[in-house]
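**Backbone shape codes:**
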Amino acid sequence: MYLCESEIVELEKTVEPTWPKLVEPLEKVVDRLVVVWGAVNHLKAVKDTPELRSAIEEVQPEKVELELKLGQSKPLYNAFKAIRESSDWEALSDAHKRIVEGSCDKGHPPQLKEAILNGVSLEDDERVRFNKIQQVAALIHVDVSCLLLHLFMKLLYNDEVAHVIYHNTHFASAWSVCHRFIRRLKHELFAICDLRCDVFETFSENRDGNGCV
């Protein structure tokens, strides 16, 4: 992330409203961050540990701060605006226009629409408040992810649910059949969405589903 930050600072100093001088170098910066953080999320998904969760929580504020710095960069935003308002605009391909105007996903550079949503037009106290809200939202996301993992582990190591999972080759489907178990965990996050129990009803050895948790 420190490397990405230094590259953003350097790009802001040298940016020009052209595709090679703006979009291409910016995409490299964003890709670096996406790839690195994607590897972290993948590791968390396949081999989660308390130590890993603690490490993620420690660096999460820095990641959010970097994303905010990128999304709220006025030099980059102004360069995108200059491309949009230039006489060369009509010569751009439809794909390039979509990137500039901001209808792509988060894996792409902060286009005009994304920059506005990221708070580039905010000033002083408004920007400070917006950034605090973003940091809190990121922490909530991490907390909810950990809570869901804890909840799922309780379900996974329940004998009845383990039997369901054993007979279901699709992990997501195995999770979706646990609706009735989730509702029983009254002091945790439950009833998150309308989950189906058809696979549970097919493979469960306990036909009434009582006393499983």
Observations:
- The chain has a mean pLDDT of 74.
- Residues 34 and 107 are 7 Å apart (CA to CA).
